[in-house]
Amino acid sequence: MPEPHPLLAHFTAAADGRFPPVDGGVTVLPPLPGGLECSVAFTGHAFVATALSAREVGGGEPDGFGASLAPDFLRRLAGPGGRIGVIDATLTARGTGGTPRLAVLTGADDHPRVRHAREVRTRVRVYGDERGLVTLADGLAGRREVSIELHAPQDGARGRGRGLLADALTLVPEGEPVFAAVSPGNARSLRAFLACGFTPIGSEVLLRPDRG
Fold first, then answer.
1. Which residues on neighbouring strands pair with residue 91, listed in sequence order?
2. CATH 3.40.630.30 domain range(s) in the chain
3. 5 and 143 Cβ atoms separated by less than 8 Å
4. In angstroms, what is the C-alpha Rg of the chain?
5. Which tens digit of pLDDT belongs to each residue from 80-125?
6. pLDDT digits (tens, 9 = 90+) for 122-158
7. What separation in angstroms does the CA of 50 have from each of 8, 68, 188?
8. C-alpha count within 13 angstroms, C-beta hemisphere, residue 16
9. CATH of 90-201, one of 3.90.180.10, 3.40.630.30, 3.90.550.10, 3.30.465.10
10. Angle (deg, nearest 10), helices 187-195 and 160-168
11. What is the mean pLDDT of residues 195-202?
12. Residue 52 pLDDT exceeds 60
């Protein structure tokens, strides 16, 4: 079994309320599996997982106060032909366990949410019902990640997202951390995650570099 990526320990610590020092620093870590890299920002400290050396990363002048997610730095990190994902808020909660309230969903392989999950995550499992679908997978640095997407809006069906997400937490053993990456601009989704007990711990962006 491969060793866990060192970034995983920092996510786990943050889920427990233990954060890196607020020193403005940037810690450079090895790249992620599958040809991916990332920049992750906590309060006052950032982590960059990349094949570049610490000296090359430092040349882009990142810092732990936001510059590790600046557009110019991310382009330098990705290279001229690399792909830069969106900057997401990093959220965490705890599984509730018990009897799972969602069934495995088949026939969703072509759904955009599922395709995206399989591009950047491993061991992707899909669940859902008439409200929408849920993916549960091993994501950034091997952490357990959840994402949801509702089906077409239904009249008089407010709260479907919160209900679906609460049911998704039953798929995770009680007390175990689970993470989500949510675009801050998707305010409806962000409100649903916060209402279900998810806590913001930082921000992140995934990259697939191509440095020529």
1. 180, 200
2. 90-201
3. no
4. 17
5. 999 999 999 999 999 999 999 999 999 999 999 999 999 999 999 9
6. 999 999 999 999 999 999 999 999 999 998 765 555 7
7. 15, 13, 32
8. 9
9. 3.40.630.30
10. 50
11. 97
12. yes
Task: Give the span between the Cα atoms of 127 and 70, in whole angstroms.
Answer: 35
Six-digit token string for 96: 């509730």
Give the integer Cα–Cα distance in Å for 169 and 136.
10
Distance CA(31)–CA(39), nearest Å, equals 10
pLDDT of 37 strictly over 70: yes
Judge whether 29 and 5 are in contact, CB under 8 Å: yes
Among 70, 40, 53, 68, CA closest to 140:
40
CB distance 90 to 200 below 8 Å: yes
The alpha-helical segments, DSSP class H, found in the chain are: 6-15, 54-58, 71-78, 112-120, 160-168, 187-195
Position 212 scores a pLDDT of 80
Q: In angstroms, rounded to a whole number, what is the distance separating the alpha carbons of residues 111 and 103? A: 17
List C-alpha distances in Å: 123 to 53, 55, 89, 139, 206: 30, 34, 23, 9, 18
Dihedral of alpha carbons 126, 128, 134, 137, sign: negative
Which pTM value belongs to this model? 0.94
Amino acid in the structure at residue 52: L
Tokens of 167: 């049911």
Q: Of the candidates 53, 4, 7, which has an alpha carbon nearest to the alpha carbon of residue 206?
A: 7
With beta carbons less than 8 A apart as the criterion, state whether 140 and 206 touch: yes
Mean pLDDT, residues 25-41 taken together: 97
